[in-house]
Design a protein that fits this description.
heterodimer; A: about 80 residues; mainly alpha; about 50% helix; about 0% strand; B: about 575 residues; alpha/beta; Peroxisomal Thiolase, Chain A, domain 1; 10-stranded mixed β-sheet
Chain lengths: ~80, ~575
């Protein structure tokens, strides 16, 4: 799980162009949207793409993302349970 | 001055001319169906296509084999109809588009690598598709000569074209103008909207509780406008009047509308105020109504706020007929409003079945009743919100004379540091311009200019080319939304509005080397008419290696331009 979390942080930094951040700057339990990293709806779409590309998880409805993308931890938990690759 | 409408022309999925369009509207016949002409692999999405192939369009229009984007073919068809109806030549063409010649670029991208099909390369420029329309407006009634303008503010482009035309009439810069927009479907923006996950696989249902996104459409729509005096003097039939208009920026987010619809509210309020009318005077609102979850909630909130205690007038979105025709939508829907006014009916909002809290309830069947005053909305990416007031009564608008304009404190090319979370998505050249613009405003001592207008020849090419290459390389499979969102010409002007919390006027022009001249014409008119006192004018272009390789085939190249000028009205 910890390994997945670290990997996910790197993937988020790359997918969302956070050039100035390192994985250590992202708190595992901090909210991704609003406060914390301050992500928005475009980032949510990028995260949906990331889940598909890296883990073979397809979300048909962007609204599902709300629960899954609460924090890096919730995202990792969802991936662990649903990944197909 | 009273601005009279003396001609209209429409082509869309529900008809190739005004007569066919009227019939489809009255019979409630939607044009949305399976893909026929757009060669995308994602055939699961229905679209609103004009039911003519490019070859059939050429034949009908009696055009030779000169390469022309579909945007221009559709534009020529609708513009010729409008001019024929007005029975008089025009001196100015203002036609909004964003797609421009993208259909040719995506079709020939691989050919370019082998040095083939190079004649289509210059047509990638949005302004070139408008110039092509202008070249082919020959009619027995006269040839259009003179100036052409291409506003490119995404889905509000055509309404902004109509607004500039009105301003140019009121300041004596045009005598009779043909104004509106044209846009063909392209795999580029079809896939772009797909990555945004806002396209419905069913026919769209604007304002319905269970709406699930938009259907893309295509087409062109124009109005011929001139002063009432000129129209009466030549015995022209007057189809209606333009009584007011306004553009405002939501300044909230690049693609999403604010929950309260601030920009939309300001645009509708501005249009009503210019006309001296009250919300209770409105008989019909032709809503933007894309059927995305976000737009319809935001637009409903803005309409409710505009009305206050007044009763909701008839509202419908005609996008369930035509699909969302993006940059052409303002032209097509304004022309539909003129049809409604002249034939005393209100078009239905098709496919609506269920209301929900926070959503206005539209008209679900064609209503046969007199229609005197109409608000027509068009909202675009970057929160670019426009509203037009059409009326069957003449409405007096002020006139003014243009004065000369010189930039305050010259040009700023330096640039200051700007840090904002969303800047991480921009290309280096776009970031550069944001810094330069911020510096120019600081130098001028202006925090929030009344208008932000950008001039760009090619638009945001780095992101456009990235999306295009990914689309071709992965056969439309692996695409990211970010480059698509950043690919529209008006990305920078709208980002500057977000950055300066600016709800003022916002526009972008793409007209080759004339882009800056177009932008300056716009702000000079508005300053003369007293709508703005200060303006930030941006110049942008960016060098992209792969695009330069293509351009070298025709002996051209791009260069990096990031300049900002601040203008203040001379008293």
């Amino acid at each position: 799980m910890e390994q997945l979390i670290e990997q996910l942080k790197s993937q988020i930094i790359e997918a969302l162009n956070f050039e100035d951040l390192t994985p250590a700057d992202i708190e595992t339990d901090a909210p991704l949207f609003g406060e914390g990293l301050g992500l928005d709806s475009i980032d949510a779409l990028e995260l949906i793409m990331l889940m598909d590309r890296e883990y073979g998880i397809k979300l048909a409805d962007p609204k599902q993302g709300k629960q899954i993308f609460r924090s890096v931890r919730t995202m990792a938990e969802y991936i662990q349970e649903h990944r197909t690759k | 001055m009273r601005i009279a409408i003396t001609g209209i022309g429409i082509v869309s999925a529900i008809g190739n001319n005004c007569a066919e369009t009227l019939q489809s509207l009255l019979e409630q016949r939607s044009g949305i169906g399976p893909m026929r002409y757009l060669h995308s692999v994602h055939t699961e999405y229905p679209v609103g296509e004009v039911q003519l192939s490019n070859d059939e369009l050429r034949q009908r229009l009696n055009l030779g084999d000169e390469p022309l984007p579909r945007t221009s073919l559709l534009g020529i068809m609708a513009a010729r109809e409008a001019i024929a109806m007005a029975q008089a030549p025009c001196d100015t063409l203002i036609s909004g588009t964003t797609v421009g010649g993208m259909d040719l670029t995506e079709q020939h991208w691989q050919d370019y690598k082998q040095g083939k099909s190079v004649a289509t390369i210059p047509l990638h420029e949005a302004g070139a598709s408008t110039r092509a329309i202008m070249r082919h407006l020959h009619s027995p009634l006269g040839e259009l000569e003179g100036s052409c303008y291409t506003p490119s503010t995404a889905c509000s482009s055509a309404l902004n074209a109509i607004m500039l035309g009105c301003d140019m009439l009121r300041t004596g810069q045009a005598k009779r103008a043909i104004v509106g927009g044209a846009e063909s479907l392209s795999r580029f923006h079809f896939n772009g909207f797909r990555t945004l996950m806002i396209m419905d696989q069913q026919p769209c249902r604007p304002f319905d509780a269970n709406r699930n996104g938009l259907n893309l459409g295509e087409g062109a729509g124009y109005l011929v406008i001139e002063s009432e005096n000129d129209a009466l003097a030549r015995g022209a039939k007057i189809l209606g009047y333009i009584g007011g208009y306004a553009n405002a920026c939501d300044a909230f987010h690049q693609t999403a509308s604010s929950p309260e619809g601030e920009g939309a509210y300001l645009a509708m309020k501005g249009a009503l105020d210019m006309a001296g009318l009250l919300p209770s005077d409105i008989d019909y609102i032709n809503a933007h109504g894309t059927a995305t979850p976000n737009n319809d909630v935001s637009e409903s909130a803005s309409v409710t706020r505009l009305l206050g205690v007044c009763k909701l007038p008839a509202v419908s979105s005609t996008k369930a007929f035509t699909g969302h025709t993006t940059s052409a939508s303002g032209g097509i829907e304004a022309a539909i409003c003129v049809l409604a006014m002249n034939n005393s009916f209100i078009p239905a909002n098709l496919h609506w079945t269920q209301s929900a809290e926070g959503l206005i309830t539209p008209v679900t069947q064609t209503l046969h009743q007199p229609v005197h005053h109409i608000l027509c909305n068009a909202f675009g990416f970057g929160g670019n919100d426009s509203s037009l007031l059409l009326s069957d009564h003449p409405i007096d608008l002020t006139e003014a004379t243009l004065s000369s304009l010189s930039p305050l404190r010259g040009k700023s090319e330096g640039g200051c540091e700007v840090s904002a979370a969303y800047l991480r998505r921009l290309s280096p050249q776009m970031r550069q311009l944001v810094g330069v613009a911020k510096q120019a405003l600081q130098d001028a001592g202006i925090e929030r200019p009344d208008a932000i207008v950008c001039a760009t020849r090619w638009g945001c090419m780095q992101q456009s080319i990235r999306f295009l290459q990914d689309m071709i390389a992965t056969n439309e499979q692996e695409l990211k939304p970010t480059p698509f969102i950043q690919s529209t010409h008006n990305t920078i002007a709208s980002l500057m509005a977000i950055l300066t919390h600016n709800h003022g006027y916002n526009a972008t022009y793409s007209q080759g080397k004339q882009s800056l001249a177009c932008a300056l014409m716009d702000i000079r008119c508005q300053m003369a008419l007293g709508r703005i006192r200060s303006a930030l004018v941006l110049e942008f272009d960016e060098q992209v290696e792969t695009w330069d390789e293509v351009l070298s085939l025709i002996g051209e190249q791009t260069c990096n331009i990031a300049r900002a000028h601040v203008y203040i009205k001379n008293e």
